[in-house]
Automatic annotation (TrEMBL):
<keyword id="KW-1003">Cell membrane</keyword>
<dbReference type="Pfam" id="PF02386">
    <property type="entry name" value="TrkH"/>
</dbReference>
<keyword id="KW-0406">Ion transport</keyword>
<feature type="transmembrane region" description="Helical">
    <location>
        <begin position="432"/>
        <end position="454"/>
    </location>
</feature>
<feature type="transmembrane region" description="Helical">
    <location>
        <begin position="376"/>
        <end position="397"/>
    </location>
</feature>
<dbReference type="InterPro" id="IPR003445">
    <property type="entry name" value="Cat_transpt"/>
</dbReference>
<feature type="transmembrane region" description="Helical">
    <location>
        <begin position="41"/>
        <end position="59"/>
    </location>
</feature>
<feature type="transmembrane region" description="Helical">
    <location>
        <begin position="185"/>
        <end position="204"/>
    </location>
</feature>
<feature type="region of interest" description="Disordered">
    <location>
        <begin position="1"/>
        <end position="32"/>
    </location>
</feature>
<keyword id="KW-0813">Transport</keyword>
<feature type="transmembrane region" description="Helical">
    <location>
        <begin position="249"/>
        <end position="274"/>
    </location>
</feature>
<dbReference type="GO" id="GO:0030001">
    <property type="term" value="P:metal ion transport"/>
</dbReference>
<feature type="transmembrane region" description="Helical">
    <location>
        <begin position="216"/>
        <end position="237"/>
    </location>
</feature>
<feature type="transmembrane region" description="Helical">
    <location>
        <begin position="102"/>
        <end position="125"/>
    </location>
</feature>
<dbReference type="GO" id="GO:0008324">
    <property type="term" value="F:monoatomic cation transmembrane transporter activity"/>
</dbReference>
<dbReference type="GO" id="GO:0005886">
    <property type="term" value="C:plasma membrane"/>
</dbReference>
<feature type="transmembrane region" description="Helical">
    <location>
        <begin position="324"/>
        <end position="351"/>
    </location>
</feature>
Amino acid sequence: MLSGVLSPRSAPSRDPQPARSDAPTRGPGSVRRWMRSPARLITAGTAMILTAGTAALMMPFTRIGEHAPPLVDALFTAASALCVTGLITVDTATYWSPAGQLVIMVLIQIGGLGVMTLSTLLAVLTVRRIGVRTRAAIAQSSAGTLQDAPAIIGRILAISFAVEAVIAAVLVVRYLLDGMSAGTALFRGAFLAVSAFNNAGFALDSDSLIGENSDPFILAPVMVAVVLGGIGFPVIVEMLRRFRTPRRWSLTTKLTLTGTAVLLGAGTVLTLALESSNSATLGSMSWGDRLWNAVFHSVVSRTAGFNAIDTSAMRPESWLGTDVLMMIGGGSGGTAGGMKVTTVMVLLLIIRSELRGDPFVVAFGKRLSRAVHREVITVVGLMGALVAVSTFVVMVLESIPFDRVLFEVTSALSTTGLSTGITADLSPVSKILLVGLMIIGRVGPITLGTALALRRRPLLFEPPKERPTIG
């Protein structure tokens, strides 16, 4: 046997065989290697669904009228729905037929579930690539969400559909009491519930929710859905399982809930202070309605995109405050976008520690690793750079004031969907740029955070230290 294998006669026949055997297997092997990257897999999946959604919206029956929608409008709407943003170039209520609105709702559902599933499963991947001790600590504090993929997906689907069903039921009852037919009330309630829980911001009225800004039975369920979808699946599960023992909550849950409460309160106070004297927004309302709508605006500014007051008529100072809320966004593992509450909370803790001269950063009695510091700075720096560059490009292309362009760019990148009313008037190039920002804002933070957590290259040596002058 050995002599036959090593004989000179058999050697020539073996040389070409690897080349021939590699030819058919190189393709599948390279595809499998390519798909091992989470970033590539997410990007490819997003592109496929976006293409299918755009093609569906270009069908003539999806539009009210005789002609099929233009490619730019179909692409922009599909991207906005899939990225659960809510920016629109055409009126959802009057431009799209019920079939087109159904396509939009399906894309919103896919986008929201996809974000929650991917972010949670990528957290599992991250945990499995770190040390055993750290993995055990995370698994113990993660409300059982890091066990196995089928169980995680099942919980995500169950919680998502349960919340959407309850919110839809409340809205349907309210619409029925207004005299709507059962079919219309059911479709509107389901659409608004799906859009709210997934933080999409699409509505079936031309003025979004301005017509219902004095109806707490509409605003309240929408706000509940937005907050639940925005804080994230792991936080919801942990709160349900450890409701009586908040001291045992994970650091992520504590940071998310604390930051959410502070931001909601700050946004409400800011909106009341700046818009109470503005007759075009809150000034013409009673104080009860002012409070309701200030709270609502604070909630939806964290990447939901509905508006119960005319956003285009707000003061520039309110736009700037809303920009900050939109960039911060919601919780990790949720349907909200932005830099995430935990990122900003950790950044503030780092600043506090540096100002105090502390040797390390502590949050709720837990010390944060240096790797977390670098991840936070990277995410914040990249998001800020994207906003600055994109705002500059749009200002070069369009004759629109800086504050409106900044608001629109921030809304797209943070996947919020609020607008000052300039989206439909943008050139096709600017619209495509916003599409790119929505996609980056939707899948970018997830893949970037995972890549930073997984990319650990041990150094063979430690370079000498030197401290440059700062400030």
